[in-house]
Amino acid sequence: MNNETATPVLEVKHLKKVFGKNEVLKDINEQVSNGQVICLIGPSGAGKSTFLRCLNMLDQPTSGEVLFEGQDLTKLDDKQLDKTRENMGMVFQSFNLFPHKTVIENIKLAPVKVKGEDDATATATAEKLLKQVGLENKADAFPASLSGGQQQRVAIARALAMNPKVMLFDEPTSALDPEMVGEVLKVMQDLASEGMTMVVVTHEMGFARNVADKVWFMADGYIQESAEPKTFFEHPETDRAKDFLAKILEA
Amino acid sequence: MKKFAKWLFLVVTVVVTLGVTGNMNTKADSNTPATDQYLSKVKAKGELVVGTSPDFPPYEFTKNINGKSKVVGMDMEISKKVASDMGVKLVIRRMDFDSLLVALQTGKVDMVIAGMSKTPKRAKSVDFSNVYYKAGEDLVIKKSDLKTIKSYKSLAGKAIGAQTGSIQYNLVKNQATKSTLKGMDKDTDLILALQTNKIDAIALDQPTAEAYAKNTDGLVAINAHFKDEGEQGSAIAFPKGAQSLVNSANKSIAEIKAKNLIHKQYLPNAGKYLATGKSKSAKAANSMWAYKDFFIAGVGYTLMISAVSVVIGFLLGTLLALMRLSKNKIANGISVSYIEFVRGTPLMVQILFIYFGLGLVVNIPALLSGIIAVSLNSGAYVAEVIRSGISSIAVGQTEASRSLGLSRSMTMRFIILPQAMKNIWPALGNEFVSLIKESSIVSIIGVKDLIYQSRIVQADTYRGVMPLLITMILYFIMTFGLSRLMKFFEGRMTHE
Ligand SMILES: Nc1ncnc2c1ncn2[C@@H]1O[C@H](COP(=O)(O)OP(=O)(O)OP(=O)(O)O)[C@@H](O)[C@H]1O
Ligand SMILES: [Mg+2]
Q1: What start and end residues bound the annotated signal peptide (chain A) (predicted)?
Q2: Collapsing DSSP states into helix, strand and coil, what is residue A214?
Q3: In terms of C-beta density within 10 A (0-12 exposed, 13-18 middle, 19 or more buried), how is residue A45 classed?
Q4: Fewer CB atoms inside 10 A, N or C side of chain B?
Q5: Packing angle, helices B465-495 and B450-461, rounded to 10
Q6: Which residue in A has a C-alpha nearest to residue B410's C-alpha?
């Protein structure tokens, strides 16, 4: 799984993001190599979502560079950015399925409209992906009729339909009832073992420990620690991390 | 309708001071030799466009002749003579009395004849021909009041109606100070008000009063006994400086007087039309049916204006909403100012402004002016509907869409607008319904919508309430039917 020597898929250099006077990200320097699974953890309000959104430029960084396969995204125009985003799937805490479209239409939309795939190809891909996430019988259902776990699995399938090189997950299980968390994590775990490069913001410490190649701990605008899960959970270095882990274990 | 006069005054003042004409100060009298181009222009056109307010029998009133409403009356016969003496065709434009002088000043008509008295005040803004007819003032009252009402003095503490802006209006105001004055725009409304006891008498000039009294059951005309305030009698109005037209009209008037045509020919002719009007109103039960084409035409115009306006308004509104939501400061500023301005001014003024104001630059026909004004107005309201429809879609939808590689405009088209439409659609339906009602105001510039037609029917039949009732029912059928239709589509959309 680890091949840290290759060119990183994603790299950020001196990334800074300010909202008004609120310096959310101060100076972030990290890289993600091909096939790596990163779990980003940290206290609420630390800027994890903001960081993730800077990776695919849904938020414009205030300064610094975001390199995707060596290309600085902060220098691209709108059109080039749209092109780049095709290669970076994103899954949201609140699923964000398109409620006016059926499950299969949700999945086919981007391949057809953006990539110009023909309907038959897009349908075949969508059916294959629905099978992969265990929802082949829900193709024609509308999102509103699905459970949260099912919706999130559709959202993952929708992102995968563009055949992305990286998948970004922003707390994909936080909005779910506990009994549905497992089914979504299972899909993500399968994805990881197939070699997908993933950046996952999560509060699921079990997932981080078992699946991640690396854990990034973010607080106060910096990545405070970047370590293998075993090292991070057993020997956290900073007081900030120790504090955070203690609180998590209490809960 | 007083409000209307006020707005009209405002618009005209603005328009006129914006510099319509440079020769406002030229004094006209009938012996001045003409150096202007007005007459030659009329001759070049081959037609004399005459503005009038046909609710003033026997001067001018409408008559249903073979299913078509025609303007007839003494003034029309005079106009015919004036036009034929000039060697041109006569074209008649109907409008509210209050709009007549504005129309003259803004070049919508070449002359105005409407039993209009020559007053010094009016003579400041237009040039008058010589007086062609002078009559005393009467009061129209109910037969039952004949014993108690002898002159305006008997009406202390009671209400007297008069046409707004008319001589009689001023006479009542100045002399019948113990009575309440009710100004209305239409004589037909005044008659209706008298019949329904809203007022106790109507001050009208003698021939008009007699015509109404003769043709309306239960009404009589008596001498009002107003003190003479130096009224000059009725004259024809021309644009300021149109001496060539004044001279030509004066020649015709001189001939009319010499041959005593008014009393020998014109008034008796008018009386004939009025007489058939009477027999028509006698067959009251089915007379509304005879006017079905008028109502149908009115419904057609009203629906057409509303439908076209709602479509243009929707396109304009979408554009304005997108501009308003855009990051571009200029586009945003334009859109916000437009929306605020249009929503902050009455539709009535907008209509008048487009018709009279813009009409100075390009000549836009009334119907088109009405559609333009209503569309522009609707656009501002629809923009807000669409904007709030778009804003109501969660930002996560945009983020999800953009993260998949859809561009900003694709996101708008495939994700946001289809969802927003579910909120927008019902609001748009409401807008259509309210347009049907609000568009009724285009009748003030003479667009032949349902209101306008009902006015004609009122004037033609001497029946006040029935046409109104029918008009109301027709409006209701349109709005109710439309909202049902909208509900039906809405239901189908949520079914999906
Ligand atoms: N669009 C925005 N405008 C202004 N401030 C923002 C915006 N988005 C985020 N913030 C602020 O940035 C900070 C970090 O927010 P962010 O959502 O990135 O935190 P997070 O680590 O994802 O927290 P959580 O665990 O609660 O999701 C917060 O203080 C938030 O108020
Ligand atoms: Mg977050």
Answers
A1: none
A2: strand
A3: exposed
A4: C
A5: 160
A6: A113
Ligand 1, residues A23, A41, A49, A220: which to mutate, most atoms within 8 A of Cβ? Answer: A49
CB contact under 8 A, A113 and B414: yes
Query: Phi and psi of B400, rounded to 5°?
Result: -60, -45
**φ/ψ of residue A23, rounded to 5:** -80, 95
**Whether the Cβ atoms of residue B49 and residue B258 lie closer than 8 Å to each other:** no
pLDDT for position A40:
96
Residue-wise pLDDT tens digits, B458-488: 777 767 788 889 999 999 999 999 888 888 8
Over residues A52-73, the pLDDT tens digits come to 999 999 999 999 999 999 999 9
Same fold? B37-133+233-278, B137-223: yes
The architecture (CATH level 2) of B137-223 comes to 3-Layer(aba) Sandwich (3.40)
In chain A, residues with a C-beta closer than 8 Å to the C-beta of B400 are 90, 92, 96-98, 155
Cβ atoms within 10 Å, residue B36: 16
Question: ∠ CA(B413), CA(B419), CA(B422), 5° rounding?
Answer: 125
Q: How many CB atoms are located within 10 Å of the residue B258 CB?
A: 8
Name the closest ligand to CA A42: 1
Enumerate residues 6+ apart whose C-beta is below 8 A from B458: B186, B188, B192, B464, B467, B468
**A110 → chain B, closest CA residue:** B404
The ligand 1 atom at the shortest distance from the C-alpha of residue A52 is 18
pTM comes to 0.68
Structure tokens at B387: 């904007």
Distance CA B92, CA B464 (A): 24
Q: Per DSSP, what are the bridge partners of residue A22? A: A19
Q: Where are the domain boundaries for CATH 3.40.50.300 in chain A?
A: 1-87+166-250
Q: Which fold has domain B290-493?
A: MetI-like fold (1.10.3720)
* Range scoring the smallest mean pLDDT among A50-59, B235-244, B331-340, B360-369: B360-369
**Alpha carbon distance A230, A233 (integer Å):** 5
Is the per-residue pLDDT at B5 higher than 90?
no
- Cα–Cα dist B228/B22, whole Å: 35
Q: In the prediction, which pLDDT does B48 show?
A: 95
Give the A-side interface with B, CB within 8 Å: 53, 56, 58, 78-79, 82-83, 85-86, 88-90, 92, 94, 96-100, 109-110, 113-114, 155, 158-159, 162, 168
Mean of pLDDT values over B108-119? 90
In the block, tokens 């004044």 appear at B246
Tell me how long chain A is. 251
Per-residue pLDDT at B228 = 76
Assess contact for B219 and B11: CB atoms under 8 A: no
> Nearest by CB to B419, which of A86, A100, A110?
A100
Measured in degrees and rounded to the nearest 5, phi and psi for residue B60 equal: -155, 135
CATH class of B37-133+233-278: alpha beta
Distance CA A54, CA A73 (A): 10
Pocket of ligand 1 (CB under 6 A): A 19, 22, 24, 44-50
Report, at the CATH architecture level, how domain A1-87+166-250 is classified.
Answer: 3-Layer(aba) Sandwich (3.40)
Worst-scoring range by mean pLDDT, A65-74, A163-172, B49-58, B411-420? B49-58
Q: What is the pLDDT of residues B163-203, one digit of tens each?
A: 877 888 888 988 998 998 888 888 888 888 888 888 999 99
β-strand partners of A23: A18
- Lowest mean per-residue pLDDT among A207-211, B432-436, B454-458: B454-458
pLDDT band at B7 (very low <50, low <70, confident <90, very high): low
Contact A89 B418 (CB under 8 A): no
Using a CB-CB cut-off of 8 Å, the residues of chain B touching A100 are 418-419, 422, 496
B285 pairs with which residues across the strands? none
